[in-house]
Protein 1
Amino acid sequence: MSKQDKIKELIDLRGQAKLGGGIDKIESQHSKGKLTARERIEILVDEGSFEEYDMFVTHRSTNFGMEKKKYLGDGVITGTGTIDGRVVCIYSQDFTVFGGSLSEAFAGKICKIMDLAMKIGAPIIGINDSGGARIQEGVTSLAGYADIFQRNIMASGVIPQISAIFGPCAGGAVYSPALTDFIMMTENTSYMFVTGPKVVKTVTGEDISTEDLGGANVHASKSGVAHFLLEDEEEGLLLIRKLLTYLPQNNLEEPPSIDSTDPIDRREDSLNEIIPESSNQPYDVKDVIHAIVDHAEFMEIHRNYAKNIICGFAKLDGMSIGIVANQPSFLAGVLDIDASRKAARFVRFCDAFNIPILTLVDVPGFLPGSSQEYGGIIIHGAKLMFAYGEATVPKVTVTLRKSYGGAHDVMSSKQLRGDVNYAWPTAEIAVMGAQGAVEVLYGREVSAIEDKEERAKFVADKENEYKEKFANPYQAASLGYIDDVIEPRNTRFRVIRAFEMLHTKKDVNPPKKHSNIPL
């Protein structure tokens, strides 16, 4: 065979590999409203930057006549590319080849690109669209999954790991995304579950659809498995590009910083008026966030889950920061099981990747009730406390209004190594609200007053007395628990200055194999 023939053979083989399972399968993929594995990569990375590896890998199975069915690449595309000039490692499962099912060779390709990501300190992005384990390969397929899981675990907290679920993801396949930092799902075309509707029906008798069992909406709003809910795949791929603008390449680097055109001394007069006169009246804390951050840009994580707490990324004078904020417009901003879990994981992610944390506090306490207690609110609330107390990144806290009881301690208080703790003049920092405090302190006196009007006046007077004494930031400030009481409209300036000062902060935890967070 001549040199030219060998080159032609290479070109032909590349063309064959790029067709995956063939034209018919590609058309079938498009008919379901899904992109192909290669089309997804093209949208994700900078144009012309993708370098593919292991294009010629094939499976090695001889069971059930599989030796007669071989496709170059074996159902997963792996390689490196750049996003805004920064290197990323990628694997994209190809549903057109054996339904994207995982073989030993398929798993080996994923493991190889994950190992490379760890070596070079680059984010790993996994695009999932797979029917699960390749049954014809038996236990070697299961071993392949476990090899991937182990690498997910080792990479955790070292490099950012992002999972896009753009099709089926069931059985053992769900655990790799679950071990990663962020999961996104597309409406109507993706689902995740450990056991499918048929097995559920057989074992439990429950009749449930695929969408209701493990669809994108379910995982974005009920289980909290999905961090982002997408209308289509293109939105998700562009969202990954946006997400990476806030994240460092790895745990040894600082998050990216850009030159900001938003003045740090920009005053927001609206913040002086945003807190309602009545302490029981809600407002949207996202209005506060948008007013503080650069150009009102805020990338919210878990938008549809545990809405009583807000988590997400923003820039402050071009610096990446993570924001955690109680949301008074949903369940009064109370902390419950879901909110505690959501915020704890976000805080731990930020700490792992050197992203400073801004906490905006307006919390009346933990949600009472038997369902919360039986569900382990004690343990779940402790997760958030643990996350803040363990975090060594710069932490700035601003108390906007309520900060009551144990929830005050949990929300990045000075005692949990909050570096700079500010409060607005509207802050109410106390063991509990005035009404509850009066019931505890003056319960006997109140019940002894028989006249209804006289009793109401007594209670009102005592509540006002309590508010004057405790429902303000000044007692905490007098003890040094609050570093300064600031005018709301100056919040952006004060917070940016605080983070600039904290840039050289060094905080170290005691030497240990690892902590034992209350799981």
Note: The chain has three domains: 3-244, 269-432+472-504, 434-470.
Protein 2
Amino acid sequence: MSTAAIVWMGVAVATAAGLIVVVRTRWLQSRTLEKCVALSVGLHAVLAIVCAFVGGWAPASWGRHDEGRMTIVMAVADEPSDAAVIEGAAGDRDAADGPLEADGATSEPQAAADAAMPPPLIPLVSTAEAAAAPPDDHVPLLDAPPSVAATAPDAAATTDPATAASAISSAQAVLPTSRSVPAIYADRVGERRAAAALARGGSEATERAVQAGLGWLAAAQSADGRWEAARHGAGIERTAEGRERRGVGGRTDHGVTGLALLAMLGAGNTHRDGPHASTVDRGIRFLVGRQQADGSFAGDAEFFAALYCHGMATIAVAECLAITGDESLRPAVDRAVAHTLAMQHPRTGGWRYAAGDRGDTSQCGWQVMVLATARNAGLGGFDAAEARARTFLQSVASGAAGGLAAYRAGERSSVAMTAEALYCRLVLGASPAAPATAEALAFIAASPPTAATANAYTWYYATVASFHAGGPQWDRWNAQLQATLVSMQRRDGGPLDGSWDPDPVWGGHGGRVYSTALSAMTLEVYYRHQPLHERGRRMALAPASAAVP
């Protein structure tokens, strides 16, 4: 150690000793503020001199010119580290949480989450590789003519809406108009829809309600193809279960647009066929034309709503690709699915708000459906991501058989999260006959739908979970649902005719488009997808492959 360093260390020790003497002699008891200021200035001056002496009076780069190449060496750790991620004023939601939002006030805020470390890249297989090993219950898509692959523009490669719209139109001109569709969607087409509805518990009343709901949604669409959340009541401050919403739903246009398109697609409409084809076409163009560079479909949604919006919009675009085989949509779907994979926690298997968040069940449901829909569209390579999702679902499970589920691990179970987790487990291959399924269905059955407990989010997931599990629980739930949901639809002949009023839980957040789209999707359950409890065999409603006219 140099002599100068010893001298300065002596100065520092002397300064510290002086401070101790000042405190012990009660020198600060009079005119405290002035003396504290003087001491602070003096101490900082001493520290500045010490630092300048040790480190130099000027940075090494001052007065120099950097020339030539710069080499940066990066070390990549084998395991991601944990770091605090402060979630701000939004806090946590409880186990009954729904889509698009984080509560502003919560009794158990999350103090930290895993650092935003990207998970290992999971390659997406090519269309040819996916076709070589199609999933069960899948009718392979007709191969597009070679000229399509060679000449169709990349509609999603630009963020310019006009260019993207032109690309979609030019690709449509050379794609075949008659093709087979994946079997999981075949019951939406033509006469199969009516037959499936009658065979699985639907009725003329449910079909009238669906068509009226779609009519209102078509009329509510804006000229640029979006459904504007705030224009239809989203973001209105409401309080449910003692938690403030803080109006974050007002900028969820991409999310509610995705939901509205899913309701349209669920009844057999695409951007090419069906009575609402032009409506779907404008909506798909809007989403694809505004996809972000990282693949996200979140649009202008704020942080806590972004991944919800991305998931809902991605499912809609991927369904459109799967049903129509429109290859101009594939690049956008590829990038969107890659974004979903990048947002999954590499160890817990969950999704939440940012890459590296440990996850919650509400987000998990939408992202699991992204992967399932992408498979139907011919993508693959999701085995590892789906295995991690099963791990996450196990972490939030409770009950004697593990059939109940909470919003996050360690929290109390709720009907909404139990239903959503059950649906995810069924989609990921769980048996409808498993004890966990029976436990979940019994828990759902204890909270039947009534007008006094309106909650479009809970009813949607409880309905699809019960339908795909099958059995007596489905029959009971379906009867109660129809008696309640159909009667709650607005049928007064006015401008709101065909819509559903926003419910008191999440309706104020998502608005009328959210409530109407989810309610229509709930009543389309009979034919939106073939029931998972019949996995491996086809309903004897029509030939295995349906052709789009």
Note: Strands lie at 239-240, 243-244, 397-398, 404-405.
Protein 3
Amino acid sequence: MRSEQDQRQGWGRIGIALPVAHLLALAPLDVWLRMLGRADGVHPKYWPRLAFVLFTSFVGTVISVHERVLWWAWSKVPQNRRLLDQHAPQVIVVLGYYRSGTTHLQNLLTCDERFVTPRWYQCLAGQGYVLAWSIVRVLLVPFLGRTRPQDRVGFGPAWPGEDDFALATWGGCSSIAGRHVFPRNRDRWQGWHALEGLDEKQLGAWRSLTRRFVFKLTRGKRDRIVVLKSPSHTARVGELDRLFGGRVRFVHLVREPGSVIDSNVRMFHALRNHALQDLPGVQEIRDGVVAEYDETERKCGDELAGIDSSRWVRVRFKDLRSDPMGTLGKVYSGLGLELDESARAGIAAYLGSLGSYSSERAAIELGEASDRERDVCAAMNERYGLGAPAVPGKPVEYVPWSDARAARGAFAALAMAGACWCVWLMLVAGLTAAGAQMRLVALVWPAGALIGIAARQAAGGRGSRWLGIWSGLLTMAVVVTVLFPVSVVIWNWAKDDGFEAWWYHNWRNVWQALSGTSSIVLVVLGVLSAYRHASEDGPIVPGR
């Protein structure tokens, strides 16, 4: 039975589970149905959350169905299958258990233009194709925070992402569902973490989807090195080496185990709103983290030992933070690469935009360290030399952004709003001439995104709250004012009854169009998109 302290700290049973911007929101319906079929059911209190997830899943299904059909047809051609089998990119995999600092290292490597890494808009809709990815990249904005829920690291559609999410959304080949969605049935997905206990069909699916995803990433970028980062890869070194035929290099990042364990418990707490089942108790979560962490790092060490030392390098997170350029120089040298001036400039610009980082966190129940945990931490500290002080270095100083060019951004938003207004009306007129009567209210969503993007880009890449508000108001103005001429083009109500009747009835038609539930939702999404794009501020997206 959970303690009163668990209840106070948010680890107890919840009431009604409210909808959230779910981490697997865009997984297609067939993937969700398979996940639900493997779980022990969803309690009625989670049905509102599940209903919203299935709605977003439907959107993900619709926008990606063409890619899935095209890919199926493409793969039926023998020449295309040979092309996929012969595709042999150079790959670098960042290794390290959850919360070891691997995201920071991935972001730093991505600053080098010689590398290409998956972005979140690709990972959250792994089954999507080029067109779908472009749509998702814009439409995801209203639902995503600017930082990850478990920490304050930059996050968004264009930020580097984890390929494990792409495999989760594409074919369910990931342990993510058991980790954060169905925690009471975690064992049913656990085999995907280390690729152990899977049958040949399951393992073949993981290999196939990984190859396909890397193939997509390198379309038109064959000369660039692919950087992959997913914490579960730490337990897959041998399989990744076989999959990429020895053309893969590894960077193993290690961090003080006590910090890793505490941070993992906090991650489960931060992502509890994505669950469709009650979480286990805090102590059970902590002990499970310790067991998986120990097994993962041991397996990683054993499999790295069987690979030529010229293809992998190990660094400590504390050194990466205290001396980023020096530590990255060690990483590049260990992988047989050169940290050239161009890469250094990109890394310095990114680091210079980060500002200060606070490690302060809200006080929550983290459980107690067991005897096994203390033994695991002691062994890991000794194995990786984590007790030694950080390498002294010179951190890159924060470089403040210049003030946003608000006037230029506001004018660009106005110009884009005018362009969207004209395109909207011309599309309606064209459809009407072809015999179709459609208001196209759904256009308010992409229009809002385009208005916000134009504002931020014209303001020098930095948005502001006031620029966001201005872009949101313009989006509202576009949809309200364009629907009047749209009504006239399609129906032209009361055209023979005088100006006042004509004016009244066509505006009444606008009100009817905007008062429907679907229209209200679309307008809200359009305004939110405009605001979020135009108000975006903070660190630069690495390698953007």
Note: The beta strands are 91-95, 115-116, 225-229, 248-254, 312-316.
